[in-house]
What does this fold into?
Amino acid sequence: MTLEGTSVVLHDAVSMASGFPLLSGVDVELHSSSLTVLVGANGAGKTSLLRLLAGLIPLSAGEGSVLDMDLATVDRRQLRRRVGWLGHEGSFYDDLTVTENLVFAAKALGRPVDELPTVLERVDLSGRRDTVAKQLSAGQRRRLGLAWLLLRRPELWLLDEPYASLDDEGRTFFDALLGDVVARGATVVVSAHDPLRSVHLHPRTLSMAGGRIVSES
Amino acid sequence: MIRVALLVAGKDLRVERRSRVLLWQVVPFGVMALLLCGLALGSAQAGHSSAAPGLFYLVVLLVALLMINRSHAIEATPGTRASVATLGLDPAGVFLGKAAALAVELWLSAIVLLAGAVLVLHTALHGTLVACPSILVTLGAIAAAGTLYGALTSGGNAAATLLPVLSLPTFAPLLIAGERSFYSALHGGALLEWWVISLVALAVYLALGILLYGVLEES
It folds into this structure.
């Protein structure tokens, strides 16, 4: 069902939890090597859409395909291995050090740990490699989350409000890294309360309300 | 599965070593509970009391409930839960790893509590040592069952309340078997039969966990 060069296709996608509709008919196509920003108020369905794309919640009705896998029939664990998730509340173990967190992720995925120094350098956390995660600042925690994703190299990046509590320097760093990732062919979907300030990334902005996409700019 | 189990067990034990919840919160609580039990029995009664094995397992139960909640709390942050889920780890391996880490924590607690039982409840050292294999197996079974129930209740608002309510009917036969075998080791009696019950329970809960943990995680 996925068209060539398209990472995500959803048609009238509905997702329910305990009888409550989290998504109530989402239609969208996301292309490879693109950056999409989901904006909307709290409860609009941004995080639920990201969770559906990550295989964390099931597709209840409609049709959907992510990375050529049909959401109706796929073993969601297989899908999850190909996507990367970064939540705004932290995406790792607070009592482990930066290095221990990344080694855990690398070993879980069967990736070589000798890439760690390069990744830490990339996110500017080399000097913090032995710091326990809970002692990192908000910006550093976000960088650790990015390092986790860089190590994994997922095809689809799903970032849930990654700009929350970041200062201007942190946002600039984040934008630059996302630009690189998109240029290398990954599909990036970001949820945010407001449209991105950085215009050089040329993001596609989708507005959500009531569990569906209501406008695009 | 074994690779994932070793990875998860190592991670859980590393988290525990760093947070020191077991060392500074749980074990002192258990020692204090044993001390109060010893004071309640009185020094003259304690050595001859048949209550010592039961009191030991009562304290073990409280320690186990605290540690089971703790074991699942480290995964409970929504962001951590989501990003670890996207690692696509084999649920059977995750279960075995978490159960193994919990068992190690319970065994370490038991060493301190058994020393406390000898000192405070005046249980015979030889009988206590004879009881050790059955205690190892019983705590292993509690760890396996507790990991299953922890997954069942974690993420809910009332996890700390639900866990003891749901798990006690399962723990009860394990605790009785453990207490009986400890008692037999101290005072003579059918040690092996009770030990076999714990061993069978351990095998059953390991098998159930390997089969069901993925379903519980998804739900």
